[in-house]
Amino acid sequence: DVQLQASGGGLVQAGGSLRLSCAASGFTFDDYVIGWFRQAPGKEREGVSCIDNRDGRTFYVDSVKGRFTISSDNANNTVYLQMNSLKPEDTAVYYCAADQISVAVILPEFYDHWGQGTLVTVSS
């Protein structure tokens, strides 16, 4: 049974940093793509970043490139999202998701397994 537990959200001032964690269980972690997504109030869920645990490749949407870093601790089945230089527009509920998609993409419709969200609020 695939389980994902996101944590690490909170309130931070613009320019600050947060690190989100996604603890995974119930599946072969090394065989999956793990993605981070976010949903702001009144907006659709959007992709942020993903990591392909099969080869370690990482992907980011343009709006977070250079500010966010995704990493995977395969020994502890945990994926992290280090978020630096946060902006008010980064405010959202952040979700992690997992799937064995053949090509790593940061599109929510390609992921079947989701964790609960963690709220990130960036004040100006």
Shape: globular
Mean pLDDT: 97
Helix/strand/pairing class, anyone? mainly beta
Q: List the total number of helices.
A: 0
Number-wise, the strands total 11
Question: Could you tell me the radius of gyration in angstroms?
Answer: 13 Å
N-to-C CA distance: 40 Å
| Low-pLDDT runs | none
Strand content: over 45%
* Largest sheet features: 7 strands, mixed
Question: What is the helix content?
Answer: under 10%
Task: Give, in order, the helices and strands.
Answer: EEEEEEEEEEE
Overview of the structural elements:
- The chain is 0% helix and 50% strand.
- It is mostly beta strands and 124 residues long.
- The strands form two sheets. Strands 2, 4, 5, 6, 9, 10 and 11 form a seven-stranded mixed sheet that branches. The protein has a four-stranded antiparallel sheet with strand order 1-3-8-7, with no helix packed on it.
- The model has no long low-confidence stretch (mean pLDDT 97).
